[in-house]
Amino acid sequence: MAEEQQAIFNEKLINLVRAIHQTKMLSRRRVSPLQDSSHGQGRILPILKLQPEMISKDLSYLLGIRPQSLNQSLKRLEEEGYITRHPAENDRRVTMVTLTDKGKAVKSTGAATSNNNVLAGFNDDELQQFGDYVDRLSAAYEQQISSLATPAEKERLAKMKGVLSMALHDQQIYNPDDPTILEKQTAAQLPMYEYNRTLPTEGEKRQKILKRMLGKVETGCYIEPPFHANFGGQHVMFGDHIYANFNLTVVDDTYIYIGSHTMIGPNVTLASANHPILPELREKGYQYNLPIHIGKNCWLGAGVIVVPGVTIGDNTVVGAGAVVTKDLPANVIAAGVPAKVLRPISDHDRKYYHGQMRIDPQLLSSKHNPSLI
Prior knowledge:
The chain has helices at residues 2-28, 44-50, 56-63, 67-79, 101-105, 116-119, 124-148, 151-161, 165-169, 179-196, 203-213, 279-283, 347-351; strands at 53-55, 83-87, 95-99, 222-223, 227-229, 236-238, 243-244, 248-251, 256-258, 263-264, 269-271, 273-274, 288-289, 292-294, 299-300, 305-306, 311-312, 317-318, 323-324, 332-335, 340-344, 352-354, 357-358. By secondary structure, it is an alpha/beta fold.
């Protein structure tokens, strides 16, 4: 019975993917190349709309294409009046790209615009829940593929997949400069740039972008801009009621899991990407990724760095400036470079919050309401 259910479910998924693909192909024929933000010149304009003036070299990096190829596209856009190019005032060797009013007027459809009417029948909670189910299914299938495939099959399948997500998450050495990976990375970073340009008064807008930006985010989470991420936070999985202070940097080439009620101080770095020690491999740009797991109710002080593959247990406090290179158990205080366990969280911490400053017992009462303070 389980095999029969699996077959029926797989058929439904295949039909859904086929319908999405056919819709994208048909809708692409109805828009101009400038309006399609998933291809060619249409990829340049959405980025410039977020930042109307940008250094050409930075634009090349964000798009993941060579400067020579970018210059060809910029030349066509400039000839048609969508952008201008001029030397920077402080360094005339640097080329600035500026979006014109004509360029601002171009409406980008985006790769998924054709699906907007379909998704309009679902509310935000339903879409979030469906997205969570899809993430779990994808992870389960990728794990199954990774366990079944030989190295040669993995390489062949990765090329067929296009996005090469298996290369990102299977902890094997791969080439991060693959064009399909760079294209995915560029698209993932756009919500991050949008989030970082919001005002402190735009709390509701920030929450909406946060749900699009992160791979998973539960209720009551907040990140102080600016936020920096290799994949725009797409591979960051938040529990609920997580707070991250200014300048959180996540090298999220693979998954970074953060448990509920965790607090993150300013200038913290969580890096999941690593490079081989062997110089010959680093010269070729190879890397590999190891997931990071941070437990529930942890506190990472200002300037903490967590390196690839580390797990931090529930309730653990990591002191400011620590570099966490190895796993930390639950319910301890750790600090230093490299970080080492100083002591467990004890009864003393239940009585004193700093030195000999006593904790008001009412604060620990289940009836206590912080909003009444």
